[in-house]
Amino acid sequence: MIKTVGLRKSFGNNHVLRGIDVAIKPHEVVVVIGPSGSGKSTFLRCLNLLEKPSSGQVFFRGHCITDPHVNVNEVRREMGMVFQRFNLFPHMSVIDNITLGPMKVRGVSLEEAKQTARDLLRKVGIAEKEKDYPSELSGGQQQRVAIARALAMKPMAMLFDEATSALDPEMIGEVLDVIRRLAEEGMTMVVVTHEMGFAREVGDRVLFMDEGVIVEEGTPEQVLGKPQNPRTQAFLSKVL
Amino acid sequence: MALDFSIIPGIIPALLLGTRLTIELAVIAVAIGLVIGSFAGIARVGGSNVARIVTGVYVDFIRGTPLLVQLFLVYFGLPTLIRRPVPPFIAAITAMGVNSGAYIAEIVRAGIQSVDRGQMEAARSLGLTYSQSMRYIIFPQALRRIIPPLGNEFIAMLKDSSLVSVIALEELLRKGQVVITRTFRPFEVYMVVALIYLAMTLAISRLVAWSERRLRVVD
Ligand SMILES: Nc1ncnc2c1ncn2[C@@H]1O[C@H](COP(=O)(O)OP(=O)(O)OP(=O)(O)O)[C@@H](O)[C@H]1O
Ligand SMILES: [Mg+2]
Q1: Is the pTM of this model over 0.95?
Q2: Which residues contact A147 (CB under 8 A, 6 or more apart)?
Q3: In ligand 1, which atom is closest to the CA atom of A45?
Q4: Do A48 and B125 make contact, defined as CB atoms within 8 angstroms?
Q5: Which of A44, B11, B14, B104 is the most exposed place for a label (fewest CB within 10 A)?
Q6: From CA A64, how far away is CA A53, in angstroms rounded?
Q7: pLDDT of B38-96, one tens digit each?
Q8: Which residues on neighbouring strands pair with residue A100, listed in sequence order?
Q9: How confident is the model at residue A136 (pLDDT cuts 50, 70, 90)?
């Protein structure tokens, strides 16, 4: 469903991604782990073109989306993204946060958008908060709204960039539960996380990234259980 | 010579007439400035390279030169180019409006840039276009941060409008000068003039402070 070929990204002299080749199959959950600054976020942001790759290609459902003629807005609506810092729209109520995209991008009617939004809020367990503003919610609740906002676009894939890193420990579980349920439903997902237990549990495949390259990849048992590469071993010994 | 407050009631009507013109000048100037400044401020953030350079030069020129010189350029300079006189009122609102536009452009730019980068990214990741993201996400948030400094800009324009007294427009300061030729009481008259300015600027800064509090509650 998503494929990168020789994906590179530099910020000036800082070569953050140095040739990434990954293919993500439909319904697959790919977990990306790696030390801070290794380029995980940049990789994720290249997939929906929030960052413009310096070279290489990104394919989405067989189309090369790094082609300059491609309408990036049409690609992005099919890929939901969840950010570390939620990035909810603070001037809008919860329900308006969720209905904006479907209405403005997909041309869905207000009633239909609200119906979808309420279904999603129920699904993430905060149906009663639809009229609240983001600042009135806890971090865990905000992140669940952010997930609902992304899902409201009915995307074909979801990208999670450390969705639980900004949360207090007691709220991590409620957000991971939502992501876990999405995985069970067969959503195609790329999940950047520092939660190794979670990676092991939901990941079909784990990528270990360091200094802009994928150092090791395989099933969670292989990469997390019996890492072959010394860099993977060193990283895991620090975080586990 | 002792202070003579008995002249004050007699000069108030004339000074209020001048006050009215002062307010008109400031309101019109800031209105013009809002139109110019909104476009210029947006162009400085999201415009083409040409638009950025043009608006950058405009803002630097206006902010780096005295309003009085700008006023003279319009009132004395422009007529020699267009070969017809520029009426004082038109010259005043032109110079003040263009001047205010540069300061408001900076206010608008700062307001837009004060919105967290993640907001634009979240909007774009939903598939909203750049202009939709600006319209629904960035501008509404920027507006809250723009309103208080706009109030300060209005205060600045109220005070700076006194400069146009030199081109014989009878705004508050000029009216005061006229009144002095009749009463020969410069201290009392200028004191009253100053207090009228003070009353206006205090009222507006109160309004600004109030709106700041209101807007913060919504955040
Ligand atoms: N917009 C940018 N401009 C310049 N440099 C950037 C930009 N975004 C990221 N970088 C640099 O790219 C490198 C990798 O950043 P990235 O955020 O992808 O790492 P990460 O693996 O997600 O790290 P973390 O675990 O801390 O989130 C860092 O050195 C960072 O400074
Ligand atoms: Mg990151």
Answers
A1: no
A2: A80, A82, A124, A163, A175, A178, A179, A182
A3: 18
A4: yes
A5: B14
A6: 13
A7: 999 999 998 899 999 999 999 999 999 999 999 999 999 999 999 999 999 999 999 99
A8: none
A9: very high
pLDDT of A54-76, one tens digit each? 999 999 999 999 999 999 999 99
What whole-number distance in Å separates Cα of residue A135 and Cα of residue A70? 36
Distances (CA, A) of B4 to B10, B185, B189: 12, 8, 10
Expressed as residue numbers, the domain containing B34 is 5-215
Torsion of CA B23, B27, B33, B35, to 10 degrees: -170
Cα angle for residues B188, B193, B198 (degrees, 5° grid): 120
Beta bridge partners of A166: none
Q: What is the CA radius of gyration of chain A?
A: 18
CB A76 to CB B129 under 8 A? no
What CATH number has the domain bearing residue B78? 1.10.3720.10
**DSSP structure class, residue A127:** G
Q: Which two tokens stand for residue B198?
A: 């003070």
| Residue recorded with tokens 């993500």 | A24
Contact assignment for B122 to A90 by CB distance below 8 Å: no
Average pLDDT, chain A: 96
- What is the distance in A from the centroid of ligand 1 to the CA of A223? 23
Q: In chain B, how many domains are there?
A: 1
Task: Give the ipTM of the model, two decimals please.
Answer: 0.94
DSSP 8-state code for residue A194 = S
How much of chain B exceeds pLDDT 70, in percent?
98
In angstroms, what is the span from residue A17 Cα to ligand 1's centroid?
10
**Both tokens assigned to B43:** 């162009």
